[in-house]
Specification:
Layout: H1 4-17, E1 24-26, E2 39-42, E3 48-56, H2 64-75, H3 89-107, E4 117-124, H4 144-156, E5 162-166, E6 181-183
Parallel strand pairs: 3-4, 4-5
Antiparallel strand pairs: 1-2, 2-3, 5-6
Length: about 200
């Protein structure tokens, strides 16, 4: 996972897309004590939201594709190279579910005392030089329904009040935090799902 600055940036973009851009974000772990939260948001209505931020590796064996791509780029450091991108829906959906399951298990060990809500923000890996393709998640076939059927039981049984899957690493007013960023779970509008209220 990238450092706090990247996590904070991802959370700020999510908040902006949800119309909550006036929130103040800070690092809850700055004192050195692990809280189980990566970024804390103080919303304008004074709610204290804890957000766990995680990345999904869209391959069956986490880390393997990134390592292979880096090895290929070392042999052609100044030139183009070719790597197949993962485009198998079942493998990608299983990778998303595996990532969420891991975070749900970690969250179960924390009390999250002092937080009004806890959210999970899942995104593709941070693109890095020599590993851009292996960290991307194909989106042309991915829908809220696919995510719901794959992850709903995990989210409903967790401590998370909301869970978001943000497909875009580069955010703009046209990247979907309500389209390129799909909320996981049934019963609510995309981008604003709350499993406990359904």
């Amino acid at each position: 996972m990238a450092g706090f600055e990247h996590e904070q940036s991802s959370v700020r973009h999510l908040l902006t897309r949800l119309g909550l851009g006036g929130a103040t974000t800070y690092n809850p772990n700055v004192a050195g004590k692990e809280t189980g939260i990566d970024v804390t948001d103080r919303l304008v209505d004074d709610r204290n939201i804890g957000v766990q931020v995680t990345e999904v590796d869209p391959y069956a064996v986490p880390g393997l594709a990134r390592a292979q791509e880096k090895a290929i780029t070392k042999t052609a450091p100044a030139g183009p190279y070719f790597v197949w991108r993962k485009n198998d829906p079942s493998v990608v959906l299983n990778a998303i579910a595996r990532t969420i399951k891991r975070k749900v298990e970690i969250a179960a060990k924390h009390s999250f005392a002092g937080f009004d809500e806890v959210w999970l923000l899942v995104s593709p890996g941070v693109p890095e030089l020599g590993a851009v393709i292996s960290t991307s998640v194909p989106t042309s076939w991915l829908s809220a329904a696919d995510l719901n059927s794959t992850t709903d039981d995990l989210v409903r049984g967790s401590k998370y009040s909301r869970c978001f899957f943000c497909l875009s690493s580069v955010w703009s007013k046209h990247s979907l935090c309500v389209g390129q960023s799909l909320a996981l779970g049934k019963g609510g509008p995309v981008g604003r799902y709350s499993p406990r209220s359904a």
